[in-house]
Amino acid sequence: MKVIGKTTTSNFTFESLEKVRFGEYVIAKNTDDEDVLAIVKNVVAENEKFICEAKVIGVLNNNKISVNRSPIKPNGEVKFCDDGILNNIFYVKNGLNIGHLLTRKNVRVYLDTNKLISRHFAVLSITGGGKSNTVAVLCRELGKKNASLIILDPHGEYSTLYHEDLEGKVKVIHPTVNPSILSPEELSDLIGLEKDDFDKRVYLEYAYYTIKKEFPNIGGMEFIEKLENLLYEWSKSAEVGWEIKYYNPLKRKYDRRKAGEKDFIAIISLYDIIGKFMIDFALHIGDKDMIEEFEIGKINVVNLSGLEVHQMITLVSFIAKHILSKRVLYLKSLKDINSPNERIKTTALSNLKTIEEHYKIVIKPLLLIVEEAHIFIPINEQTSASLWLGKIAREGRKFGVGLGLVSQRPKQLHPDVLSQTNTKIILRIVEPEDQKYIQRASEELGEDLAKDLASLGIGEAIIVGTAISLPSIVKIDKFDGIYGGKDINIVGEWMGLDDW
Ligand SMILES: Nc1ncnc2c1ncn2[C@@H]1O[C@H](COP(=O)(O)OP(=O)(O)OP(=O)(O)O)[C@@H](O)[C@H]1O
């Protein structure tokens, strides 16, 4: 194969008598006689020849790639890059072995585990493109490294996650929340109060602090029942225009408030909402703190299926907030135990004891994978979940809390958070708007790769970012275990009716 026509430092054309495919890796010499690795970006068949346009990747030395500063030697020889060189380029020690180069079945592609997690990542594709399979393969690889994972799973796709390498490592968590450890704000969100429903939110807060004051040790459903009873009493007082007595935590004393018609309406509708919440959410109200259930070194799958969106958002916000804050507190306490200040040291020791007893998962770095991330980090509003997931995206790297966003609606994802995901695993994206949106969120995804997105097959991904040696098209392994992602065989189930 031979270079033809003019060349530059970044592109050249060559002709070949043997077949060359898009995405193929070749080596040519530059004018400093260095080996330059390039990737075929376009092939034109002309009579018996193939005219190929190649894009320079960089100068090859000892399997490392450096910037190419000299034009490709005109009329120089071009040869296929052999698998051995590519395997060395794409191998990463302690990396995640997720698949092979699309054009090279024998070249395995590894992702750098530390860079993938510490700098966050996103898995994006149209529905059916292979996101869940990709996440399952990542779990398989991370499980081998005893990773601490939390998967927030709105469709319950990972509750059936099984692989022989993950024996005993998958823990499915039925999301329960103890309302008495939520903030009044979180509890208002959880029962479905609108952000601007101030009247109800104020009375919920009054009732919340009054019950906390009068029954400091109750939790779970008992706490909600006490709230409901108090609201009922208040509604009776408000109905006849009496005063309402409530505990004010700021003044640390009881206050009184004259209740009128407007208050009565707010209180009685709040009472009804709480009653409905107790019925709809009963299975998710507990007196334990869900965070205590997460186990270190395991894949903790929080099955959110069956919940309403506002309930999912509140639970995800609660998990993200408490995971980050407990991890930060743990690391701070590890430093504070060496403080000369006795009070700081004692507090730190007590915090470490509590965390090591109840919240082991934050003792080591951990990864939070958010499926259907566009629900929780929407472009058009600041939800309580996006507040805390955004904090993890911005600050998590310092504390060893990684974020993995999975979405089939990239352009509905908040751009600030998507752009914080340094590595992008992008499966088939057909919508030009989605392609442009992803491109704006990741500088490595050049025009040439972006236009390939629509032609990717199932499980074929363009991977860009710091966790992969080179931006590449990778065929992700088909997960050789079980997860909930396989398509339902609709006609097979219908035809099976004959046997009913
Ligand atoms: N890398 C792959 N190799 C072979 N088949 C794959 C691969 N990835 C996914 N598939 C198959 O494609 C189908 C859809 O996969 P998957 O559920 O991962 O897609 P998805 O993008 O998560 O879809 P959804 O958005 O509906 O969850 C499944 O039947 C799966 O077995």
Automatic annotation (TrEMBL):
Residues 2-60 form the Helicase HerA barrel domain. It catalyses: Couples ATP hydrolysis with the unwinding of duplex DNA by translocating in the 3'-5' direction; ATP + H2O = ADP + phosphate + H(+). It holds the Pfam family DUF87. Residues 367-464 form the Helicase HerA-like C-terminal domain. One of its GO terms (molecular function) is DNA binding. Residues 97-323 form the Helicase HerA central domain. Keywords: ATP-binding, DNA-binding, Helicase, Hydrolase, Isomerase, Nucleotide-binding. Belongs to the HerA family. This is Uncharacterized protein. It comes from Methanocaldococcus bathoardescens. The lineage of its organism: Archaea, Methanobacteriati, Methanobacteriota, Methanomada group, Methanococci.
